[in-house]
Design the sequence.
């Protein structure tokens, strides 16, 4: 019997080698799909991974994400490698019709053909899942896919990533990941009225899904100016630095994607981000402590927040974010801070740092002006300085969150 | 008829401290582990929200995280001549319910027992002769020594982040620590808590009396800490909501803060909550367990086959499960034979309440284990010769809380309601403190647990019956300790004091301590113990039983530190068992 197996093994040598190559490509593809966080958008709540059906919220309506498993009828089972590469590079389906840029092909166009192929190889290894997704959820006129021809003409330039020869290999690796697969700009770059990136404000922060994806350029007021490369790596790896914790949509990005990426890639991203952007606008003068709204805010902070975040805003490493000097606190748009207070938030948990600490919702017992006061106080204490927040801002966000089911 | 589920490597009964530690360690070594817990899932952020966690009515008065007597209760009597009646509301002790068990609502006092505690019978007879042993006692040496357990105490303390000051590192005495403690390899992982004014007075007074006060080891931790499992804790805020409450600040060591975040990431671990294990199933030979039977919330019965059964419920319920499963011979006080239910023990409380003229103690700035203690009168740290009793007590000045509903001490003789009562509350609240003695209870022939012949639970199974009273030895000890507390209270400068003596007979109504021990004890002889020195059942070698049910008698300390140490000690033995199944100690 053993000799038969040995013989079969011999016979299998040719194809087995080819298979092995495929295996390596699929493994690489898995790592690339992880870096691209494909699973996040292509998995419905409670659904099978990559089987689609997730309602992606855009300013134009919800887009249901398609099934990426190799199912012939409902997935990409009939797609060829070229079909897949074209979708990534040009944002078009095999039949030539247009995909919506909610699928971030304006970023994926930078992905090399070799990497796109590897991702395709990986997706082919998934078990096919039959999952019919209703792809016609956008209202008129956005339901007309042909309209994307015009959008593309205005806002989309296909083109593979071109390294800057004058910069380091590490910087270029970071640039490739951030500008391409990582599609960081999809959340962190402001959009124009047509939903296209404002290229001149690349990575300078953007409101998304009732949160602020903050400025991640080297801006020292609202961005990463005061973060070291090592801190950025730690943040991407575990969702934590000495002073901050990730929550909101970034928690998912870290748990699904960046925590599983190689340290060298994270460092490349950090090196690239630290070389982006300028100093930004100077910090405003903080509101005086005697300001009536500040006094109300301080009283609320002392009663409600100081047990965890400490009365000097220093927080507790790995559990309660530091508020003094925290970039989220100092964003022009205070949505993230207000959102966290209204709904609560849970921070990232990873294998290395499994505690996934959470802050409870306080929206049920603080009214709009109380939230505005405590936010204003936090934004203007312990060295922080940022514009006052009015109760109207809280009221609007509370309404949006409440209609979104929070 | 129970529906049979696919086999697992390990089934864990109860998901408190011991169950969660074993589940994590075994699941991370690749075994398929299922934990079955009769109460609900509990998580810090969702269940102990900062806005609702400090709700004294819900938790302290209405017992939100405790077992409901409808789920399980006991019948109780003081001696075998009485008829036992069911407890309809928990009072004297408070068993936990749900994931985390009593590790959610404990105070956090985390002690190591003293070296002499583990060989108390031999030691006392060596030093004082047979005559010192009390009548009817079942005092036994432990089958392990302090030295055996030291590395495991250390492991538990580092998982829990305990705050404290070592008194003895590798035999070298450390100023400010407990000079009586056994030698430890290294100091506590975090420094002691900040003490209050009463503790300052106590430290001074006790020092002047030639005693040796030190900060009490605390699971309400003093500084931010990340444990070896990667789980993080925050500094205690001294809010005074520990015992009876879950901690909302990630400050008190509990399975929720120290173990579960890592455990729930283990792919081979599964928890089934709201499911009560009704029986450990045995093979025909009676020497092997085949798994457990449990009932879910809908009353559906399931059989969970497993190669290894770890009984990790609260001490009293471990004993009942063994009795209901027919593991080990039940103890019979008439003949003195049998082992399951034998050596049930408890603790004594006595002390002195001290009323000051001008002090302002701010009792609300408190924590479950905040306090200063001394061990001069614990174990055999003092000459028992002149006193005629065995055992001792740790003596403490502490504030666990100053909560509005239940904390309003007034001098004895004050009316219990009305304007005079209110006036006394107002005058006393800031000016009163207490010096307390938590004392050991030895084991006796007539203090034991068995199945009740009359009362049954909703599933038709007999309730467990507790037969317990304080014996003369404990009365003598506790009352002598009360006088020592009073001396210290007076030396602290109290204007008046009230000595609190031990009330006999023991009464199940007022809260005393949840430190129930014994009933499934470890020992070196199967005739007088249920478990061998590795907490393995003598009779059924693939059953291990964790918890304070293994203590041969109780010491003058809170039990959780020793429960944690025994868990890690047993874990190492379980790993050996897995390589070569069978009894780890030959009889």
Sequence:
């Amino acid at each position: 019997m053993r000799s038969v197996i040995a013989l079969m093994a011999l016979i299998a040598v040719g194809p087995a080698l080819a298979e092995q190559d495929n295996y390596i490509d699929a493994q690489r593809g898995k790592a690339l799909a992880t870096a691209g966080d494909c699973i996040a958008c292509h998995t419905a709540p409670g659904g099978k991974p990559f089987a689609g059906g997730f309602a992606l919220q855009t300013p134009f309506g919800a887009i249901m994400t398609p099934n990426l498993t190799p199912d012939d009828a409902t997935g990409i089972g009939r797609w060829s490698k070229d079909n897949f590469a074209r979708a990534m590079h040009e944002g078009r389906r095999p039949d030539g019709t247009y995909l919506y840029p909610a699928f971030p092909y304006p970023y994926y166009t930078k992905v090399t053909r070799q990497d796109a192929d590897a991702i395709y190889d990986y997706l082919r290894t998934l078990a096919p899942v039959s999952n019919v997704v209703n792809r016609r959820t956008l209202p008129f006129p956005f339901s007309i896919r042909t309209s994307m021809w015009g959008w593309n003409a205005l806002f989309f330039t296909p083109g593979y990533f071109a390294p800057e020869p004058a910069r380091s290999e590490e910087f270029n690796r970071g640039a490739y990941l951030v500008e391409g697969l990582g599609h960081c700009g999809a959340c962190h770059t402001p959009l124009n009225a047509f939903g296209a990136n404002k290229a001149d404000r690349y990575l300078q922060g953007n409101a998304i899904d009732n949160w602020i994806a903050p400025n991640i350029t080297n801006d020292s007021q609202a961005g990463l100016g005061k973060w070291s490369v090592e801190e950025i790596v730690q943040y991407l790896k575990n969702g934590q630095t000495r002073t901050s914790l990730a929550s909101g949509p970034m928690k998912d990005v870290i748990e699904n994607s960046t925590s599983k990426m190689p340290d060298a890639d994270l460092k490349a991203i950090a090196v690239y981000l630290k070389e982006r952007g300028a100093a930004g606008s100077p910090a405003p003068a903080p509101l005086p402590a005697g300001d009536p709204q500040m006094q109300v805010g301080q009283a609320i902070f002392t009663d409600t927040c100081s047990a965890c975040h400490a009365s000097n805003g220093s927080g507790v490493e790995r559990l309660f974010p530091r508020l003094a000097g925290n970039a989220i606190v100092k964003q022009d748009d205070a949505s993230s801070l207000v959102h966290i207070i209204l709904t609560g938030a849970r921070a990232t948990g990873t294998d290395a740092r499994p505690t996934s600490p959470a802050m409870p919702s306080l929206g049920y017992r603080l009214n709009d002006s109380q939230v505005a006061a405590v936010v204003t106080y936090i934004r203007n204490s312990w060295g922080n300085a940022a514009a006052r927040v009015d109760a109207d801002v809280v009221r609007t966000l509370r309404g949006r969150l409440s209609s979104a089911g929070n | 008829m129970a529906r049979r589920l696919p086999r697992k490597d390990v089934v864990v009964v109860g998901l408190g401290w011991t169950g969660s530690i074993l589940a994590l360690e075994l699941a991370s070594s690749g075994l398929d582990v299922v934990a079955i817990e009769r109460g609900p899932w509990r998580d810090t952020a969702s269940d102990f929200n900062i806005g609702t966690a400090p709700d004294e009515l819900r938790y302290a008065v209405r017992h939100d995280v405790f077992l409901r007597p409808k789920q399980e209760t006991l019948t109780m009597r003081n001696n075998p001549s009485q008829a036992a009646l069911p407890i309809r509301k928990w009072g004297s002790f408070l068993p936990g319910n749900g994931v985390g068990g009593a590790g959610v609502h404990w105070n956090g006092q985390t002690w190591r027992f003293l070296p002499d505690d583990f060989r108390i019978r031999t030691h006392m007879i060596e030093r004082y002769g047979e005559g010192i042993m009390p009548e009817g006692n079942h005092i036994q040496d432990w089958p392990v020594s302090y030295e055996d357990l030291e590395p495991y105490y250390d492991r538990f303390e580092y998982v829990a982040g305990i705050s404290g000051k070592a008194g003895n590192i590798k035999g070298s005495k450390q100023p400010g620590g407990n000079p009586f403690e056994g030698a430890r390899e290294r100091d506590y992982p975090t420094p002691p808590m900040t003490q209050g004014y009463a503790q300052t007075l106590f430290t001074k007074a006790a020092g002047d009396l030639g005693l040796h006060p030190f900060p009490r080891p605390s699971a309400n931790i003093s500084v931010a800490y990340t444990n070896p499992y990667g789980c993080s804790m925050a500094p205690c805020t001294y809010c005074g909501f520990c015992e009876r409450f879950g901690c909302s600040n990630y400050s008190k060591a509990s399975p929720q803060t120290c173990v579960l975040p890592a455990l729930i990431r283990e792919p081979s671990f599964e928890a089934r909550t709201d499911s009560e294990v009704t029986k450990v199933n045995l093979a025909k030979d009676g020497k092997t367990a085949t798994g457990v039977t449990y009932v879910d919330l809908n009353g559906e019965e399931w059989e969970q086959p497993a190669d290894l059964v770890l009984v990790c419920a609260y001490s009293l319920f471990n004993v009942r499960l063994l009795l209901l499963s027919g593991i080990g011979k039940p103890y019979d006080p008439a003949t003195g034979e049998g082992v399951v239910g034998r050596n049930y023990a408890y603790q004594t409380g006595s002390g002195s309440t001290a009323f000051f003229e001008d002090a302002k103690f701010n009792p609300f700035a408190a924590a479950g284990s905040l306090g200063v203690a001394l061990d001069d009168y614990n174990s055999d740290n003092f000459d028992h010769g002149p006193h005629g009793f065995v055992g001792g007590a740790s003596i403490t000045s502490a504030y666990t809380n100053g909560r509005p509903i239940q904390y309003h001490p007034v001098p004895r003789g004050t009316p219990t309601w009305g304007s005079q009562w209110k006036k006394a509350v107002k005058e006393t609240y800031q000016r009163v403190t207490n010096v307390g003695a938590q004392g050991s209870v030895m084991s006796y022939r007539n203090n034991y647990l068995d199945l009740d012949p009359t009362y049954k639970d909703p599933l038709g199974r007999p309730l467990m019956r507790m037969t317990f009273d304080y014996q003369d030895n404990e009365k003598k000890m506790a009352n002598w300790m009360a006088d020592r507390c009073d001396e210290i209270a007076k030396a602290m400068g109290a204007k008046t004091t009230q000595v609190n003596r031990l009330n006999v007979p023991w009464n199940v109504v007022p809260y005393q301590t949840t430190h129930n021990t014994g009933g499934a004890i470890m020992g070196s002889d199967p005739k007088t113990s249920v478990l061998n020195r590795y907490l393995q059942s003598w009779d059924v070698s693939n059953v291990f039983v964790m918890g304070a049910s293994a203590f041969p008698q109780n010491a003058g300390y809170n039990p959780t530190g020793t429960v944690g140490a025994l868990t890690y000690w047993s874990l190492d033995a379980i790993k050996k068992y897995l390589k070569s199944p069978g009894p780890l100690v030959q009889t």
